[in-house]
Amino acid sequence: MDLNQWVDELFEVFDEDKDGVINRTEFVELIDVLLQDKGIRMCETIFNRFDKNHSNSISKDELRDMVIELAL
């Protein structure tokens, strides 16, 4: 599976309300899964860092940037 497919699947799973963005609640769940034991306290900082347009949500492109930087 390539990166784009992985991001598409992550986005599909964590965009629970299917509104096309990942809101803060969904983001906390995503970070919990990706970071596991590293802790949720990083969520606010990470969310703000990758919510580049300050929309209070994470777009698929913003998620892709986050996955590239944090998970790879």
Overview of this protein structure:
- By secondary structure, the protein is mainly alpha-helical.
- The chain has one domain (3-71): Recoverin, domain 1 (Orthogonal Bundle), CATH 1.10.238.
- Helix content is 61%, strand content 6%.
- The chain contains 4 helices and 2 strands; from the N terminus they run H-E-H-H-E-H.
- It has helices at residues 3-14, 24-35, 43-50, 60-71; strands at residues 22-23, 57-58.
- Strands 1-2 form a two-stranded antiparallel sheet.
- Helix 1 packs across helix 4.
- The two termini are 14 Å apart.
- The model has no long low-confidence stretch (mean pLDDT 87).
Question: What distinguishing features does this structure have?
Answer:
EF_Hand_1_Ca_BS; 72 residues; globular; mainly alpha; EF-hand domain-containing protein; EF_hand_dom; EF-hand-dom_pair; 2 strands; Recoverin, domain 1; two-stranded antiparallel sheet
Instruction: Give the low-confidence spans.
Output: none
Q: How many beta-strand segments?
A: 2
The order of strands across the largest sheet is: 1-2
CATH class: Mainly Alpha
Strand content: 5-15%
End-to-end CA span: 14 Å
Named CATH architecture: Orthogonal Bundle
Give the count of structural domains.
1
CATH superfamily label: EF-hand
Question: What is the N-to-C succession of helices and strands?
Answer: HEHHEH
CATH topology: Recoverin, domain 1
Task: Give the C-alpha Rg.
Answer: 11 Å
Shape: globular
Q: Number of helical segments? A: 4
Average pLDDT number? 87
